[in-house]
Design brief:
Strand content: over 45%
Oligomer: single chain
Largest sheet: 5 strands, antiparallel
Order of helices and strands: EEEEEEEE
Length: 76
């Protein structure tokens, strides 16, 4: 699985700080545990507020398993 992680600048609940993109599908998480090697990528993503593609930095990794415990995600 391709995993990309970035900070959720739209966090309004003081809990869901992270955007976790798994195979191009976005989920929100409060905490992340990463147990695989990671690297930084710069990726173009669509920003609906600006109606254009923008460049964002991600913590990126390849995972064999993703385990959710409520709002906490563990990446293995």
């Amino acid at each position: 699985m391709d995993i990309k992680i970035r900070y959720n600048h739209n966090c309004t609940d003081d809990k869901m700080y992270w955007r976790v993109i798994i195979n191009s599908v976005e989920f929100l998480a409060s905490d992340i545990k990463i147990n695989v090697p990671t690297y930084t990528t710069r990726d173009d993503v669509y920003d609906p507020q600006r109606n254009e593609m923008v460049n964002k930095h991600h913590i990126t990794c390849k995972a064999n398993a993703v385990i959710w415990d409520d709002t906490v995600v563990e990446i293995n």
